[in-house]
Specification:
Elements (H helix, E strand, L loop, with lengths): L2 H10 L7 E5 L5 H10 L3 E5 L3 H8 L10 H10 L2 E4 L10 E4 L4 E2 L5 E2 L1 H11 L6 E5 L7 H12 L8 E5 L18 E5 L2 H12 L5 E3 L3 H31 L4 H8 L23 H11 L5 H27 L8 E5 L14 H12 L2 E5 L5 E4 L2 E4 L5 H5 L3 E4 L8 H7 L3 E3 L12 E2 L1
Parallel strand pairs: 1-2, 1-4, 2-3, 4-7, 7-8, 9-10, 11-12, 11-15, 15-16, 16-17
Antiparallel strand pairs: 5-6, 8-9, 13-14
Helix pairs in contact: 5-6, 8-10, 8-11, 11-12
The structure holds nicotinamide-adenine-dinucleotide.
Nicotinamide-adenine-dinucleotide binds next to helix 5.
Length: about 425
C-alpha cells in the first residue's frame, strides 16, 4: 500500500466511534485502558488468553476495583466492548494496544515472552495497515528489537504496512484521583508517521500527550520513574530502621521534612512492595546497565532493603512480644490487610505473604482480615478472611497492620488490642502505649 494512502486511511479511522481498537491483555493495565477507550466512544475488542476472564467480562462482570461493574455492563450492552480469547477477528482492528505482562526471571533477566508471543500472533494479521502500540513495560530497545524486527522479518514495511509506537502505561490502580484520561501520556514512534498517528489517537481521549524523542527515551522514562520510586522507598525504609533504633518516630520526621516547600518529596516506609511494577521494573534497568559495563548498585541495594522489610517487621513483632514475656511461638497474630495496595484486592507479591509464612514457620497462630481478599494462600498455607470486630481483636496477642484499607475503624482496633504493630501509620501520632510503628 502507498505510504500516503496508508497514513490517510489510518487518520480517517482515528475518529472515536469509527475506529475499531484491539487491546491485548485485559489485566490491571489493559482492562481499564479498554474500558476508557470504550467510554470515549471507540469500538474495543479485548483479547486475553484467560478464557474465564473473557467469559466473565462479556457478562459485564468486572474483576477490578478500577472498572465499575455498572460501567462495564453498559459498555458490553452498547456493543462498545467485547472480549475474545482468539485473534481470529483481530484483522478488524486498526489500532492494536499491547498490554500483556512483562516479568523478570529468577536470574534477573527480563522475561518478555508474552510480548513475543503476541507479536508472533499479530504478524499473521497485518493484511491492512495498522497502528501497533506497546504499552507493556520493557527494557530500552525492546519495542524495536522484538516487534519491529519480527514485522520486518515477515516482509512488512514500517510506514507502509504498519505504524509502531511505544507508550508506557502509567496507570496507578486504585487511585481514583488519576484516571487514565488525566495521566499525561508519553508517546514515542518508530517513525514520524507512527508518532503523529499515536499522538492523534491518544489526544482524542487523554488530556495531555507528551511526545518523546525516541522509543528508547519513552522506554527508559518508564524504568526511571519506577526506579525513582523503588530507590526512595528503600531510603525511607532504611531511615525507619535507623529511627526505630533511636526511638524516633519516622512518621513525624517525614511530616516535618514535608513542610519544606521545595527539594523534598515524601515517600513512606512499609512492610515491602508488591505488584509486578516496582519490584520488577528497576531490575530491567540494572540488567541493561550491566550490558554496558555499568553497575546499577543503587537498584541492587534498594531491592535488598525492600526485600528485607517483611523480615524486619516480623523481628520487630517478636521483640515487642518478648517485652511482654511472650514468644512468637503460640502467639495469636491477626494480620490486617493482605493486598499489596490500599483499597485493592490484588495480592501479587504482597509482603503479607512473607510475613505470614515467617510467623507460621515460627509457630505463631495466624489469621487475617481483609475485606477485599476473602481467601489468601501462599506456599504452605491457605487462610480465609475473618470478620473484623472487637471480639476477634480481643482474642489476639498482637495485630499487625500490613495494608491500610479505607473504611476500617483503626481506632477500634487500637482500643481493643493488646499490641498493634502498625507498618503503615494507619494510626498516625497514636500516643497509645500498645501501638507501635
Ligand atoms: N498493574 C499496574 O499497576 C501497571 C502499571 C503500569 C504499567 N504496567 C505494565 O503493564 C503491563 C501489564 O501489566 P498488568 O499489571 O496489566 O498485568 P496483569 O497480569 O494484570 O494482566 C495481564 C493480562 O494479560 C493476559 N495475557 C498474558 N499473556 C497473554 C497473551 N499472550 N495474549 C493475550 N493476553 C495475555 C493475562 O491473562 C492477563 O489478563 C506490564 O508490562 C506492566 O509492567 C502495569
Amino acid at each position: 500500500m502507498e505510504k500516503s494512502n496508508q497514513s490517510s486511511s489510518l487518520r480517517a479511522g482515528l475518529q472515536p466511534k469509527q475506529t475499531p481498537v484491539a487491546v491485548i491483555g485485559l489485566g490491571q493495565s489493559g482492562l481499564p485502558t479498554a474500558a476508557t477507550l470504550a467510554q470515549a466512544g471507540f469500538r474495543v475488542t479485548g483479547y486475553d488468553i484467560d478464557e474465564s476472564k473473557v467469559k466473565s467480562l462479556n457478562r459485564g462482570e468486572s474483576y477490578l476495583e478500577d472498572v465499575e461493574q455498572s460501567d462495564l455492563s453498559r459498555l458490553v450492552d452498547q456493543g462498545n466492548f467485547r472480549a475474545k480469547n482468539s485473534f481470529a477477528t483481530l484483522n478488524g482492528a486498526k489500532i492494536i494496544i499491547i498490554a500483556v505482562p512483562t516479568f523478570i526471571t529468577k536470574q534477573g533477566t527480563p522475561d518478555l515472552k508474552a510480548v513475543k508471543a503476541v507479536t508472533d500472533d499479530i504478524v499473521g494479521f497485518i493484511n491492512e495497515p495498522k497502528l501497533i502500540i506497546l504499552e507493556s513495560t520493557v527494557y530500552p530497545g525492546a519495542t524495536e528489537e522484538i516487534i519491529k524486527q519480527a514485522l520486518d522479518a515477515a516482509g512488512l514495511k514500517l510506514d507502509e504496512d504498519y505504524l509502531l509506537a511505544y507508550s508506557p502505561s502509567r496507570i496507578d490502580p486504585g487511585n481514583s484521583n488519576w484516571p487514565i484520561t488525566k495521566i499525561p501520556k508519553i508517546v514515542a514512534g518508530a517513525s514520524k508517521e507512527s508518532l503523529s498517528a499515536a499522538e492523534e489517537f491518544y489526544s482524542s481521549f487523554i488530556d495531555k500527550v507528551i511526545p518523546a524523542g525516541s522509543i528508547k527515551a519513552a522506554e527508559t522514562t518508564k524504568l526511571f520513574e519506577n526506579s525513582y520510586r523503588a530507590v526512595n522507598i528503600a531510603f525511607v525504609d532504611a531511615m525507619k530502621i535507623f529511627c526505630e533504633a533511636m526511638d524516633i518516630d519516622i512518621w513525624e520526621i517525614i511530616d516535618l521534612a514535608s513542610s519544606k516547600p521545595f527539594g523534598f518529596v515524601p515517600f513512606y516506609p512499609g512492610p515491602g512492595i508488591g505488584g509486578e511494577c516496582i519490584p520488577v521494573v528497576p531490575l530491567y534497568l540494572a540488567w541493561k546497565a550491566k550490558e554496558y559495563g555499568i553497575r546499577a548498585d543503587f537498584i541492587e541495594v534498594a531491592s535488598q532493603i525492600i526485600d528485607m522489610m517483611p523480615t524486619h517487621f516480623t523481628n520487630q513483632l517478636c521483640g515487642l512480644l518478648n517485652k511482654e514475656g511472650k514468644t512468637l511461638k503460640n502467639s495469636k497474630i491477626l494480620i490486617l490487610g493482605v493486598a499489596y495496595k490500599s483499597g485493592m484486592s490484588d495480592t501479587r507479591k504482597s509482603p503479607a505473604k512473607k510475613i505470614i509464612r515467617q510467623l507460621i514457620e515460627t509457630g505463631a497462630k495466624v489469621s487475617y482480615s481483609d475485606p477485599y481478599v476473602p481467601s489468601f494462600s501462599s506456599s504452605g498455607y491457605q487462610l480465609k478472611s475473618s470478620k473484623l470486630n472487637a471480639g476477634l481483636i480481643k482474642k489476639q496477642d498482637a495485630v499487625v497492620i500490613v495494608t491500610e484499607h479505607p473504611n476500617i475503624d483503626y481506632k477500634m482496633v487500637a482500643d481493643n488490642s493488646r499490641l498493634v504493630l502498625d507498618t503503615r501509620n494507619a494510626l498516625p501520632h497514636s500516643k497509645k502505649h500498645n501501638v507501635h510503628h
